[in-house]
Each structure stands twice: as structure tokens, then as C-alpha cells.
Amino acid sequence: MTRPQAYANLLERSAQLADVSNATQLLGWDQETMMPRKGAPSRAAQLATLAGVAHGLLTAPEVGDWLAVCEEDPDLDGTERAQVRELRRDYDKATRLPRVLVEEMARTESEALAVWRDARPARDFAAFAPYLARLLDLTRRKAEAYGYANEPYDALLDEYERGMTTEVVRRLFDDLRARLTPLVSTVLERRGTVSSACVRQDLPEAAQAAFGLDVIRELGFDLEAGRVDVSAHPFCASAGHGDTRLTRRYLPDDLRPALYGIIHEAGHGLYEQGLPIEWDRTPLGAAASLGVHESQSRLWENIVGRSLPFCERVLPRLQTHFPGRFDATDAETLYRAVNEVELSLIRVEADELTYNLHVMLRFDLEVALLREELAVKDLPRAWNEATERLLSITPPHDGDGCLQDIHWSMGSFGYFPTYTLGNLYAAQLFDAARRALPDVDALIRRGEFAPLLEWLRANVHRHGRSLAPDALIEQATGRAPSAEPFFAYLQGKFGGIYNV
Fold this sequence. Notes:
By secondary structure, the protein is an all-alpha fold. The protein is built from 20 helices and three strands. It folds into two domains: 3-123; 166-498, Neurolysin, domain 3, CATH 1.10.1370.30. Helix 6 packs across helix 7 (152-160), helix 9 (205-219) runs parallel beside helix 10 (255-274) and helix 10 (255-274) crosses helix 11 (290-304).
């Protein structure tokens, strides 16, 4: 077989894999938004079947043959070489997993998700515990199949942030925790100087929805290539180019979860909508990593969305959408309100300053669960003790404790550290964007978000998966990934707000 034919076959197989993945994404979106409750068993079977189909397409012997032919050709251009390299990575990982394990994981994840959705509001960890135990067993088997040098958790991290290890994450978290803890303590001593009262009002859901759509439309999210629905846990799902779906949730007496939830998911959606169309349905046409993906959502949600210029921009619209509710509010008051620091039990509602402590808690517990140093039955106790240790508060029940996140019901062990990595990347990327756009604050104040989005398109989105995460950040910012820009950002922002 000639190299051009082998390469064409690889791209055709990649397109088939992308189609199966997009169909799986669509079924997952439907499961969270529209599916009747009694459809859960059928959906679990459907997702297991599709997982098996995708695994079979990727691990077929001919794929290995085509890769070998292409890898022997020294005349591949840069894009061709990158496509082959990324498909080789996918192929090598997939061939280590038995198809029966892939199907069983997909089926169990779908079943566990349905159980979790009922267990959380019922505060019933006992109902979810058997499914969590099954998922952990399957995940350990997956880690063993992948192989790892030191920790089983390393194999899971690599799925979401290639090249990342447990040791690197722990070192990063230990350093960040040592810096954050005294800053959080100092700020909390002055918590009475900031009030969130202006955003804690009775706010109709319909008005919150309309306001959120106005905001993300102005940020640049294309609503003709996407949609917004409601789910128990907000997420972004891409069902193919031109079909990016966001979900959100509402609290009737607090603007922040709906507003910042939709901005967060729109940040993910802007990345999906900005991936290079010429690489659609190929290995390079995906995000660089979950950490890079998270950098986009956290940049728009926090660095832009919780900035003073943004508050100045949206205040008049708040006053239009919620007549009489914000007439006495000025932009400075709104800015301080949306950046209030308080000890919170719920990760997705946590402020920027304490948010990463929530991630560190989950990382420590995941590692212990994977090592079998922590039994599933003891998880609620361990969670509560860690929350008390890190945040000085204790969950009143498991719904606000170990049941609060959707991730474990989806088998997503190794995912949580990417949230903090995303925060670090976001601060570093925004620093670089500010150097390129010195008037970025004035642009935000005027609602001119296109220059910032175009900078992200050029420096992050257009590269797809062609660069490793650390290489992408270094190329975009001129320096290797570092926690320094993020911590400097936190110190500057919250030091100013709380006068410390």
C-alpha cells in the first residue's frame, strides 16, 4: 500500500470515529436534558454499544498497518506528521484496553449517572455507593491496562492532560495551598467589608435566561451553531462542527450561579466553535487538553466576567432585564458583590480565591480511593473531615458533600486537577493577551470582545490538538506554564477589593 493511500485511510477512519463520538455526545446531552427517566436502561445499552463500536474502529489491525506505512515516510509534511502522531497515541492507548472493559465502563457510567441524579437531592450516599465501587474497580482495571510508572492515578491524569503526573500535581497543589491559605485567612478576616446583597434577590428564571443569552451572544458565542438548555450540572457538549450545546442551572435568589455558569460554559463553547474547520473530524481537530479547555472557560468566567470593566458593561443590561432590582446598584458595588469571598460547601459556587481548595480536596480523595487506602463506605466521613480541614466548615449532609459533583458518576477520575491547571493557564494567557491588547479593559468596558476572542483564536483555538498543552501555553505566552501569574492575579484583585 502506498503512503498516500494509507494516510487517506487513516483520515477516513478518523472521520468515522469522530462521527461515533459526536453521536455519543448527543446521546449524553439528551440523557442530561431531555431523556425520560425510564429511558435510562436503554440509554446505557446504547452508549455501551457505541463505545464498543468506536473501540473496534480504532483498534482494528489495519489501523496499525496504515500507521506503520505513514511513519516510515520521511516526506510527510508537518500537519500530516502531527495527524499520524496523534492517531498513534490514541491507537496505542486504545489497544491496551479490552473491548469488554470499554463497553462495561460505558454501561456502568450511564447507569451510575441515573442513580446519582436521584441520590444527590435525596442525600442518599448508600444508593450511589455500589455504583461508585463498581466504577472504581473498572477504573483501576483501566489504569492497570494502560500501565503507569509510579501511581495508577498517573494513567488517568494522562487521559485528560497528557504528560501530567500525580507527583507534579501534588507539588503544584502543595505550593499553591501554602500560598492561598494565608491569603484566604486574611481576606476572610475582612469579609464584612464586601456584600453580595445586590445579587442575592428574587430574580425570575425567564429574565435570568434572557440576560445570560444576551451576555454570551455579545462575548461571541454563535447561537446559530449552538443552544442552551437546563441540566442538574452545567456542561458543554459538542455534537460536531456547528452544533455546540451548553447547559445551565438557576437559583431563584442569586444571580451568580446562572450568570457565571453560562459564561463558563460559553468559554468552553467558544473554544469548540473556534477549532480549525479544516481539521474537523481528524485527530488534530480537537482541544489540546482538558486543562487548556478549562483555561478558556475560566478566563471568560472569572478574569473577564468578574472584572470591573465587565460589571460596568453589563450593569445597564441588568437594569433593563430586571426592572427596579438594580437601579440603586453601581458598577463598583456589583464588582465587589460578584467577587465576594466566603467559605462555601459547593465547588461550582465557590469564589476564585477558595475554588482551588475544593479541587485539592477531590484530588487527595481520588488518589486515596484509587490506591484503596480509602474505602467507598468511608468516603462521606473522609470528605467531611477534609472539608473541615481545608475550609473550616462541615457539610450538613452528603448532598452538599461527597455527592455534589457529577464527575465520579461518569467515571471521570483524574479530571478534577484540570480545573486548577485551567486557572493557571487562564491567568498566564490573559497576561499575554494584555501585552498584545494594552487597551483590553477599555474594550471590555465597551463590549468589544472580538479582539480578545480573535487573540485566543489565533494563539489557542487554531492549533487544535497539534501542540501538547505545555508547548501550546509556552508558544502563546512566551514562557513555560507557571503558577506565578495566577497567584499574582489573585493577590492584586482580592488585595484591592478587601484592602489587604
